[in-house]
TrEMBL record:
Gene3D superfamilies: Laminin. Residues 139-175 form the EGF-like domain. Residues 1-24 form the signal peptide. GO terms for molecular function: calcium ion binding. This is Cysteine-rich with EGF domain protein 2-B. It comes from Paragonimus heterotremus.
């Protein structure tokens, strides 16, 4: 019975997750369709009846601008580039709503188009909420700081309505800076933004470069600039030869280092190529003044005295 209950709870939880995802997808597709409808209105604004007797059509059917022909031209374009059944499913629900709006609103004032998302997806179909609202009942979102964060579920029928903070911001309303990684930069008397500390800093900073660190991060050390300012300077870990010297060479990176592979021709190297070898591996010979070019279809290489380099090459080619 316990196993059955746990399985039932798991299935119920999974259904809730899938249902929430479905609701979010419904709003997303409805919004895309509404946006495409508005785009198609713009694209067909100067279009007319195509082919046949357009004078007769306009005399007997009416202007193309408010015609059923234009409406269906637009409808046919909304999911034209989509192979997702979801788009067509949402469109099946929206088409009657769009047709009613076309006849009752657009035909009487086809220049004053307001947000089609609000008309199609919020008011008529309930797929979405107005912006700054969330959830099944379209409750009001928390007043998240801008910049700083955004409401979870904003404009959809899902979400918590709480603030999700951007990187560097914290607090319930995302109105504070994370002072361990960012610092406050006052743009004006009203607006303060959070700017990132330099990569060399740890424990906070007061300006964006290496001179503003409270402490230096691992891989960096205190030093003085030419102007006499204290700053955090990159440590060259390669000076301590941390890599396998017979197989790898060291590359210093900001705050760290990388061990990269030598050419298979090398025993020790200063770079990735056979020209960077310190010593040649068995079966290879160091050759000076070489030039390479394809030799036959098997792309083997031969050498001649032509340049000023040295390279470990297979002994069979020397």
């Amino acid at each position: 019975m316990v196993q059955f209950s746990l399985l039932t709870l798991f299935r119920g939880f999974l259904i809730l997750i899938l249902a929430a995802a479905s609701v979010a997808d419904d709003c997303e597709y409805c919004t895309k369709i509404a946006d495409r409808f508005a785009e198609s209105l713009q694209k067909t604004a100067h279009k007319g009846f195509s082919g046949g007797n357009t004078h007769w059509e306009e005399t007997n059917i009416g202007s193309y601008a408010t015609s059923e022909v234009r409406f269906h031209d637009i409808i046919d374009s909304l999911c034209a580039n989509s192979d997702n059944a979801w788009c067509f499913g949402i469109l099946d629900t929206l088409e009657p709503v769009m047709h009613t709006w076309w006849n009752s609103v657009f035909k009487t004032n086809h220049t004053g188009i307001h947000s089609l998302r609000d008309i199609f997806c919020v008011t008529a179909s309930n797929y979405c909420c107005p912006f700054n609202h969330f959830g099944q009942k379209c409750d009001v979102c928390a007043p998240c700081s801008k910049p700083g964060g955004s409401c979870v579920g904003n404009g959809t029928r899902t979400g918590s309505g709480l603030c999700s903070c951007d990187v560097g911001y914290t607090g319930d309303l995302c109105d504070k800076c994370n002072l361990l990684t960012h610092f406050e930069d006052k743009v004006n008397d009203v607006l303060t933004v959070c700017k990132a500390c330099h990569i060399s800093c740890t424990g906070g900073c007061w300006n964006p470069d290496a001179t503003g660190c409270n402490e230096c991060a691992i891989g960096w050390a205190p030093a003085f600039t030419d102007e006499g300012q204290q700053a955090c300077e990159d440590v060259d870990e390669c000076e301590k030869h941390p890599c396998n010297s017979s197989l790898e060479y060291c590359v210093n990176t900001p705050g760290s280092f990388e061990c990269r592979s030598c050419s298979s021709a090398c025993i020790g190297c200063n770079g990735p190529k056979a020209t960077d070898c310190i010593e040649c591996r068995d079966g290879y010979q160091l050759v000076k003044d070489i030039r390479e070019w394809p030799w036959g279809s098997r792309r083997r290489y031969r050498w001649v005295a032509a340049s000023h380099s040295a390279k470990c090459v297979p002994e069979e080619f020397t």
